[in-house]
Amino acid sequence: MTGPLGALERSLRDGPPDEAGYRPGRLEAPTGVAGEGPIGIVPLERIIAVPSIRRAQSAPAWQYLAAVLVVAVGIAAFGIIGRPSQTGVDGPVSAPPSSISPSPSPSPRASAGPATASIIVPPLTETFLSPRNGFSLQYPAGWTVTPATAGWPPDTYLPYGNPALDTLERAGEARLIVASQPLGAGGTEEAWLSAFFRPYEGGAPCGGDRSTWPRLEIDGVLGYLDAADCFVPLDARISDRDVSFDALVFSGGRVYQFGLDGDVDLAYFKALLATVRLDPSQAID
Question: Which fold has domain 126-198+205-282?
């Protein structure tokens, strides 16, 4: 022991004994730190070694991938096996084929969008009387009307915007075009139809064999639906979803061609045709 306590200890130990003959022995200071207590030292608690905790070794990455694949395969198998099926009395029932209404073939649809539900036809409140082509019809309010200013030459295809067309339209909705020409001396319906052609307009010609064309009535005369639900080139469309319909009818030695395209359907076309009045005697060629 060192310090003042050590000197006192040595002096008492090395000095003479007391009256009773007692001589102090060597004083062993307890292990501790200074603090409260009888001798001013706080004993230290015994330190017990704690066993170290071993870190669990991570599994290799390929084991995790394998586990994920096993789970995925199991889920897929359950989905296939557990999927309910419709069955009838004698076994599985397959969906019946949908009925197809008569229409010209082939009939490529416009790529602008899928077929929609029946389109509402606006009220046909306005009347158009063609100054050249010998007919009249009803059309919706708000449409722009561009009367024809030229005749339709024989064996000639009329693109949109041709001056031989009466054009009634509303941008973003629909466009109706009408042309008319005489059959000529000795001309017949059969001869005209045999010479009639439709250009390719960026795809297969729409309409097919005329023997497949459905018949429809225009002002009491039986005509032909020579094209239905057909493709319209992008640079000629009037609306985003643009399909076209076309009809031919013969009356008073003339042929009339009616065409409708836009966001329309066959019912829309027939509603317009139902208002047509043919007057070939008033046509100007």
Answer: Protein Transport Mog1p; Chain A (3.40.1000)
